[in-house]
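In response to the reviewer comment on reproducibility (Comment 2.3), we provide here a single inverse folding case reported in full, input and output, so that an independent group could reproduce the run without further information from us. The structure tokens appear first.
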């Protein structure tokens, strides 16, 4: 089920469940996992993309292993708010994933996530090789943390 609003994912929260953040690229999928209280996002891993059936199989293993109640998929919106070909590609990926998987998902505007993560890694003096290995899963963590922060803000309001 593709949710219209990220707050819809709160309806699927169960004890010890987690959220999985996805930064979907053309060659890789960065993954991040929330804690069971849905407060903190942590980078998990980066999957190399192959065929959709293989990607879904790998994601299903992770969903089961970590008791994932919902997915947060980063949507690469243009800086002016419009959606280009990359958004269409990510939306198609989510639609295909939704067809093969019952876990609810929502989209989250990922503008500036990769830039923010890259800047952080540069400031930490991480080597170029290591940045390449880390940027996708850290971007997924940045995306997921945005949703988790919104949940915290909403619950305090």
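Designed residues, in position order:
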């Amino acid at each position: 089920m593709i949710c219209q609003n990220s707050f819809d994912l709160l309806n699927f929260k169960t004890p010890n469940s987690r959220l999985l953040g996805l930064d979907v690229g053309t060659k890789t999928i960065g993954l991040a996992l929330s804690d069971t209280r849905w407060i903190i996002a942590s980078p998990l891993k980066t999957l190399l993309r192959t065929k959709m059936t293989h990607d879904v199989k790998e994601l299903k293993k992770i969903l089961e292993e970590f008791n994932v109640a919902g997915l947060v998929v980063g949507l690469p919106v243009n800086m002016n708010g419009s959606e280009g070909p990359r958004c269409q590609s990510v939306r198609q990926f989510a639609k295909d994933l939704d067809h093969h998987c019952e876990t609810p998902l929502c989209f989250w505007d990922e503008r500036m996530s990769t830039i923010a993560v890259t800047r952080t890694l540069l400031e930490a003096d991480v080597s170029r090789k290591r940045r390449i290995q880390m940027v996708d899963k850290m971007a997924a963590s940045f995306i997921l943390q945005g949703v988790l922060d919104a949940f915290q803000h909403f619950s305090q309001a």
